[in-house]
Design brief:
The protein is of the alpha+beta class. The protein is 42% helix and 20% strand. The strands form 2 sheets. A two-stranded antiparallel sheet has the order 1-4. Strands 2-3 form a two-stranded antiparallel sheet. The model has no long low-confidence stretch (mean pLDDT 84).
Length: 91
């Protein structure tokens, strides 16, 4: 998975392609600026989606589990403090 870190709207486009044998059109995303891009490991990309879902659901445990999955917490992190901080962001 590719994550573009340059989020201005002008850096992303959609190309519509003709030419499929069945007559349908194909689309693809086009990235114009790779100044800040990185490749993500499966746990990182999945963890980002889990964090977003946790935020939408205001689910503290899902957010913290996603942080663990992504490997962004230091070894031995005080998970109660992390949960408390996440919870405070939902209030």
């Amino acid at each position: 998975m590719l994550k573009s870190l340059s989020t201005s709207p002008g850096n992303l486009g959609v190309e519509i392609l003709d030419g499929r044998k069945d007559g349908t059109k194909m689309t693809r995303l086009v990235f114009y600026d790779f100044g800040q891009a990185c490749a993500l490991q499966k746990d990182q990309s999945g963890g980002i989606l889990d964090v977003i879902e946790g935020i939408v659901d205001t689910n503290v445990d899902n957010c913290v589990n996603a942080f663990i999955r992504m490997g962004v917490l230091v070894d031995g992190a005080d998970l109660d403090k992390v949960k408390s901080k996440v919870r405070s962001n939902f209030e």
